[in-house]
């Protein structure tokens, strides 16, 4: 299904929810960046003002995710969005001023998704129960383009239970595990040949009890007489990609599974009872891994699909390379 277009970044440093420009859309761009990000005027209590005047126009962090004080899943990256581009020559210095600490310590690295977004992820998933802190000491730090940091930022969050869902497009199943133990296997339908679902691992961006979805907003069809036209508000929505992939219930596919063989417009469909149950199980950062679709893996910056890059690929986008977190 498709979601009405809206702003993407909706918090100022307090942590961010990526709001998809569309849902289940076949017509959306395959690669999505944060370049059109907008910040609200709401400040964060963790921001401290610089005691001195900046050396030039300010360099600010528009968002840090996860939000401080939250509990997230094992695949959740630390994602930092800058208000202005950071030059390649300045990225190693900027990375070194964004200190990641954890208990227990883990190995990981920064990776730049373009020139405004940097994500830090561990080499493998976070261990459940880890406490993580990022201290972004940006005061006086240059972005290489004539701007200098005027604030310091600090976020602390926790890694919760290791909840995962493995979706088989061809098998019409979703297997849910918690801390390595199987919980339930659900019947699903996913994308059609015309509108295939993304493959790969996508960390949950957010979830909403209701989402308004339209085919017109994603370029599928604005013709009310078309078989592909829809304009619906649907419940129990788990948001997987910024381009609009969701796990949710669809009134057009109320009993998904191999028996119905109904394809979606790119989302993963569950029955109403299963969608409500799954909604209660997952949180931001839990990995949903989809296999069996011909579309290929979602780009790493299409939401939080960071683990779709192998470790060598991840390090290729880092200015300072692999490192071990400081000890909390």
Q: How would you concisely characterize the structure shown here?
A:
With 328 residues, the chain is mainly β.
Give an overview of the whole structure.
With 328 residues, the chain is mainly beta. It is 7% helix and 34% strand. It has 3 helices and 22 strands. The strands form 5 sheets. Strands 1, 4, 6, 9, 11 and 22 form a 6-stranded mixed β-sheet that branches. A 5-stranded antiparallel β-sheet has the order 3-5-8-7-21. Strands 14-13-12-20-15 form a 5-stranded mixed β-sheet, with no helix packed on it. 48% of the residues are buried. Mean pLDDT is 85; it is low at 2-22 and 26-51.
N-to-C CA distance: 43 Å
- Rounded to the nearest angstrom, the radius of gyration is 20 Å
N-to-C order of helices and strands: EEEEEHEEEEEEEEEEEEEEHEHEE
**Protein structure class:** mainly beta
In this structure, how is the largest beta sheet organized? 6 strands, mixed
Mean pLDDT: 85
Apparent shape = globular
> Oligomerization state of this entry?
single chain
Helix content: under 10%
E-strand count: 22
Total number of helices:
3
As residue ranges, the low-confidence spans are 2-22, 26-51
Strand residues, percent: 25-35%
What distinguishing features does this structure have?
328 residues; 6-stranded mixed β-sheet; 3 helices; 22 strands; 5-stranded antiparallel β-sheet
């Amino acid at each position: 299904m498709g979601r009405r277009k809206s702003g993407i970044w909706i918090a100022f440093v307090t942590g961010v929810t990526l709001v998809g420009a569309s849902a289940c859309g076949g017509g959306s761009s395959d690669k999505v960046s944060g370049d059109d990000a907008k910040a609200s005027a709401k400040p964060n209590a963790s921001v401290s003002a610089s005691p001195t005047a900046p050396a030039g126009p300010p360099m600010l962090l528009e968002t840090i995710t996860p939000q401080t004080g939250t509990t997230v899943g094992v695949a959740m990256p630390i994602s930092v969005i800058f208000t202005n581009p950071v030059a390649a020559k300045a990225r190693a210095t900027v990375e070194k001023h964004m200190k990641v600490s954890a208990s227990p310590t883990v190995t990981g690295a920064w990776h730049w998704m373009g020139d405004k977004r940097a994500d830090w992820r561990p080499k493998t998933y976070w261990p459940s129960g880890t406490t993580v802190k990022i201290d972004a000491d940006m005061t006086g730090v240059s972005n290489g383009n004539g701007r200098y940091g005027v604030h310091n930022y600090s976020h602390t969050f926790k890694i919760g239970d290791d909840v995962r869902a493995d979706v088989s497009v061809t098998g019409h199943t979703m297997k849910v595990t918690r801390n390595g133990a199987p919980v339930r296997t659900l019947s699903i339908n996913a994308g059609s040949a015309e509108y295939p679902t993304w493959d790969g691992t996508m960390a949950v961006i957010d979830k909403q009890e209701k989402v308004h979805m339209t085919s017109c907003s994603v370029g599928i069809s604005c013709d009310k007489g078309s078989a592909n036209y829809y304009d619906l508000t649907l419940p129990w929505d788990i948001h997987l990609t910024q381009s609009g992939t969701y796990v949710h219930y669809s009134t057009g596919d109320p009993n998904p599974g191999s028996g119905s063989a109904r394809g979606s417009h790119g989302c993963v469909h569950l029955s109403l009872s299963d969608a409500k149950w799954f909604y209660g199980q997952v949180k931001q950062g839990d990995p949903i891994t989809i296999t069996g679709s011909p579309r290929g893996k979602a780009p790493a910056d299409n939401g939080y699909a960071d683990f779709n890059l192998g470790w060598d690929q991840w390090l290729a986008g880092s200015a300072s390379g692999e490192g071990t977190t400081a000890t909390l």
